Amino acid sequence: MQTLQQLDYWAIAIYMLLMAGIGLFLGKFVKNIGDYFKGGNAIPWVSGAISNFMTKFSTFIFVAYAGIAYQHGFVALTLIWSTVLPALLGVAIFAKRWRRAGIMTPMEFLETRFNSSVRQTFSWMGVLFKILDNMVRLYALGLFVKAATGLSLESSILACGIIVALYTVVGGLWAVVVTDVVQFIILIVATLILVPLTIQAAGGLPSMMAAIPDHFTWFNGPKGMPLYLMVYYLMILVKYSGNWTFIQRFYSVRDERASQKQGLLTAVFFFLFPIIFLFPSIAAKALIPNLENPEMAYVSVCLKLLPEGIMGLMVAAMFAATMSVLSGEYNVTAGVLTRDIYQRLFNPKAADKEMLWVGRFMTLVLGALVTIGALYVGGFGGAFEANKLFTGLFAIPMTLPLVLGIVLKRPQPWGAFATLVVGMGLGLILNTMPQVSWEWATLIEIVSCVLVFLLSGALLSPSALYQQRVEAFFRRLRTPLTEAEKPAENPVFMQIMNRLYAVALVVTGALFIVMSLPSIEETSGRVALGAGCLCLVLSALMWYRTRKTILVSEPVEHHKTQQTIEN
């Protein structure tokens, strides 16, 4: 298999400089811990939806799900569409509640809803799970980079881990969201270049369907069985609904309506874009039928079809996918370490400036731990299997009290503890019993955890103080936010953000145009050139829009100033 060429490395280097520049620039606007961990509740809902999508969408898709698509076809889409359900449930149930909760980290809610012991236990266990979960993502990215560059897996993981951690440390949630939007554009454009190339190389869609007919059915293979799909959808519903970054996006926007619109747009993204992303891996079965490692399907077809320079952009897009996830996870997990553990246990009177620096230090520590741990993920049987194992052991028992606790007010603190103990105990036992399938093990664990949690609500708590606190909290969740509780919009700052997007689009467009020139005689080069020109047009429109906004707002500001002088 061929590897990256010199032009490809230039493309990746320019992309990395762009991400680092955005992180450093946005670091100037981070003045306090609220800015760092929840963007001052001022994240635009469209940007939040893109970030929400990107923080669930990593190279894991292009490795684990790509392997399923290569082996079994469209069933990979059937599986990945499980992510649509939690986004829609968020719109219907959770979005308003999380925005009204008035929290800076998801774990803060647990103290108000249950007690401080629940908050501490779930904070420590949650950080451990986040480290394990992100180890899998970084491992998947390392596999991709190893296949593309020829570097060792260890070197690939170390390089990727260091890059992600450093640019996330400076800019906080704003850096996460803005880079997510830029990375989203790069990822979409790079993937759209690959799709027509794979169809052309396979001799057209009819030829592909004739060559691999089973791959064009929705329930092919063992992962297409009804029981497997039912349990997988249920697992993803639990995992995503209680995912810290998923929750963080809901409470980082201005109000409840913005939170719901963000969730709806996220669902649309989850439904549409996986079709584009997974199609090349399905086509790879027809193009490279005897691939030794199915999880290398996507990178193999990229190396086969993409010319020098364009391949570098595709690797940059892979970086984009996983950097988005890891940066978001690092930010929200560092928030728990800073707010729920450091401030709550070690320094309750910590000044805001100190908290900001502690948050950055925690982000750096998390990056180091995840990078080191990713070196050992291969021992768990690969990315997809490791993800299933960690989810069964930790995600289910940890997220159910979080998800059900914000909806149901009767379950008590001991129910949260019992859910965690019973869930993890069952997970450990069932995963060591080869005679019990993953489907039944996961289903038994979910049902048992739900029953234990609900059982704790069968009788009211004898503590009147606890009942009053919980009742007051749920009353707040039912009460719409007032205008005074919503952050004041800063049009100047938003103009700066839009201009930053415009500049990033210029760099992206120029990158695609320059990298297309050596292969301009080929289809890939011409498609890349068109994509680059489209980025430049979008940049110009965005810049013009911000200029128009400034011209419109200036007379208004002038009128207000005149009124003030006259008064």
UniProtKB/TrEMBL annotation:
**Subcellular localization(s) per the UniProt record:** Membrane
Transmembrane segments annotated in the record for this chain: 12-30, 42-68, 74-95, 122-144, 156-177, 184-205, 225-242, 263-288, 313-337, 357-377, 389-408, 415-434, 440-466, 500-520, 526-544
MF GO annotations: transmembrane transporter activity
Ordered alphabetically, the record's keywords are: Membrane, Transmembrane, Transmembrane helix, Transport
Give any Gene Ontology cellular component: plasma membrane
Does the keyword Transport belong to this entry? yes
Q: Kindly indicate whether the keyword Transport belongs to this entry.
A: yes
Q: Which Pfam families match?
A: SSF
**Gene3D superfamilies registered for this protein in UniProt:** Sodium/glucose cotransporter (1.20.1730.10)
Question: Its topology with respect to the membrane?
Answer: Multi-pass membrane protein
For this protein, the record's CDD domains field holds: SLC5sbd_u1
Q: Note the NCBIfam families from the entry.
A: sss (TIGR00813)
Family, similarity comment: Belongs to the sodium:solute symporter (SSF) (TC 2.A.21) family.
What is the name of this protein? Na+:solute symporter
Tell me what organism the protein belongs to. Answer: Spirosoma validum
